[in-house]
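Progress report, Aim 2. The chain analyzed during this reporting quarter is listed below.
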Amino acid sequence: MIRLAALLLLLPSAALAEGLPLTRGFYVDAEVGCANASNATLALLKKDGLNSARTDCTFTGFTEQGDGTLAYTETCTDITAGDSYDNEGRIEVLGPDSFRLSGEGWGTTFVHCPQPDLPEPWRDNDISDLLN
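Predicted structure tokens for the chain:
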């Protein structure tokens, strides 16, 4: 059986997120809930990375850590300033619709939110080009 990280490392960087066993789309901090999502609590798992309100990030690699946890590297662009930087952290896949992101001294669990369950403006945004 091929391990998840080994499979992900075989993929081109644009397909890394597609190899994650997670539903693509909007995720919200599990403590907040879909109906109460805001820029500060919402993330978008797209076809090639994970975005937040201020960053557009593309996964560049994964290393298996064990127990469903992967260390990841990514290249990010600050949406407002336009600055690019490299970042790293850990993602623990909890199920097809939830994951925990963590880094040095922090961690947040996210759950998938179907778009109709989100407040405006996310409810009606057409994000199909980012997912497929």
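Confidence is low (pLDDT under 50) at residues 1-15. The first strand starts at residue 25 and ends at 29. These observations will guide the mutagenesis work planned for the next reporting period.
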